[in-house]
Amino acid sequence: MRAPAGWASSEGTLARELVMSGHGLHTGRRVQVRIHPAPDAHAGHGIVFRRVQAGREVATLRVDPALREAQPLCTMLRAREGSNKGKGVRTVEHLLASLLVGGIDHAIVELDAEEVPILDGSAAPWIAAIEACGRTSLARLKRFIRVKKPVVVSDGTLAQRREMRIEPCERYEISVRNDLKGFGDMHWEGALTPEVFAREIAPSRSYGRVKWALPAIVAGYVKRTPVLRGARLSCTASILGNRVIGGMRLPEEFVRHRVLDLVGDLALAGAPLLGRVSALRPSHEMNYRLVAALLADRDAWEWAECTSDNEST
C-alpha cells in the first residue's frame, strides 16, 4: 500500500543520540534520558525502555500493552516477571506519541530514574529534539495496524459517559470530545499526520485545577503512590477558577492534550493506525481499554505494510 500522506514508507531510527533532562511530574525526581538509535532494527527491535542506576542496567522493558499498569494521571509500564519484575517506567505517553509521529520505530530509551521527564508539560520539546537529531530510514518497510471492523468500549453513567470507538479508515483520524466545568464542551477532529501533530497537538500541556493538586499530592503520599509531586506552573496549564494562569497556548488546549495522551497510549500497539478513533471524555484507562480490546480481537485488525510497488500485503 502507499503510505498515508505525511507518513514515511519505511521504518526509521534516530540519526544520532538524543539527550534530555528534567523532572518527573509525579515523582518530582530529576531524570536524564538518552535515546539511542536502535542497533538491530532489522530484527524488529521496536521501542525499548532501559532503566540504569549508577551506570548499571537494572531493567529493560519493551513497549507492550501487556506491561501497562494503571496509575493516576499517567501511563506506566511495569515488568511482570523475570529479573525485571516490579521495575517500571511511568509517564511514557508524551514520549511515545512523539516517537510514533516522528517516524522513530526503533530506539532504546535509557533513563536514570523511574519517570520520563515532563519538560514543559507538552510534547513540543520531544518533537523539536527528534527533528534536531534527524531520522535514519531503514530497509525495513513501514507497517501500520489496519482496522477491519469497529471496536467500542464504554463506561460511566449517561450523564458522565465515557466512550471510545475505533473503526476502519484509510488514514489515521481522531475525533475527541471533552468537557470541563467553566470551559464548556471542547472538540478536536482531524487526520493525524506528523505535521498536524507538531502544529496542533504537541504544544498542548498537561492541565489541572490548583485546588485539586494539594489533596491529590497528600493522597499519593498516604497511598505511597507518587502523584503530582513535581507539578509546577512551568509544566502544567494550571486552572484557577475559570481561567488558566498565564493563558492557553492553543484554542481549547485541554481537549488537544487529551488527543496527545490518546496518541501516546495507542502507540502501545507498536505502530500507527489506519483507522478512525472517536473518543468521548477519554482517559488513560479508557485509552488502554480501547487498544487492548482492539488487539484482543484478531478479526478486527491486520498488519498493512508499505511496499515498493505500492501493493498492500
From TrEMBL:
EC number(s) given by UniProt: 3.5.1.108
Database matches in HAMAP family: LpxC
Metabolic or biological pathway: Glycolipid biosynthesis; lipid IV(A) biosynthesis; lipid IV(A) from (3R)-3-hydroxytetradecanoyl-[acyl-carrier-protein] and UDP-N-acetyl-alpha-D-glucosamine: step 2/6
Catalytic activity: a UDP-3-O-[(3R)-3-hydroxyacyl]-N-acetyl-alpha-D-glucosamine + H2O = a UDP-3-O-[(3R)-3-hydroxyacyl]-alpha-D-glucosamine + acetate
Gene transcribed to yield this protein: lpxC
Family: Belongs to the LpxC family.
Domain of life the protein comes from: Bacteria
Record keywords, A-Z: Hydrolase, Lipid A biosynthesis, Lipid biosynthesis, Lipid metabolism, Metal-binding, Zinc
Name of the top EC class for this enzyme: hydrolase
Pfam name, any one: LpxC
A GO term for molecular function: UDP-3-O-acyl-N-acetylglucosamine deacetylase activity
Residues that, per the record, bind Zn(2+): 94, 257, 261
Organism annotation: Paraburkholderia silvatlantica
Function description: Catalyzes the hydrolysis of UDP-3-O-myristoyl-N-acetylglucosamine to form UDP-3-O-myristoylglucosamine and acetate, the committed step in lipid A biosynthesis.
Protein name: UDP-3-O-acyl-N-acetylglucosamine deacetylase
Cofactor(s) in the UniProt record: Zn(2+)
Keyword flag Zinc: yes
PANTHER family: UDP-3-O-ACYL-N-ACETYLGLUCOSAMINE DEACETYLASE 1, MITOCHONDRIAL-RELATED
Coiled coil: none
InterPro entries, sorted: Ribosomal_Su5_D2-typ_SF, UDP-acyl_GlcNac_deAcase, UDP-acyl_GlcNac_deAcase_C, UDP-acyl_N-AcGlcN_deAcase_N
Active site: 284 (proton donor)
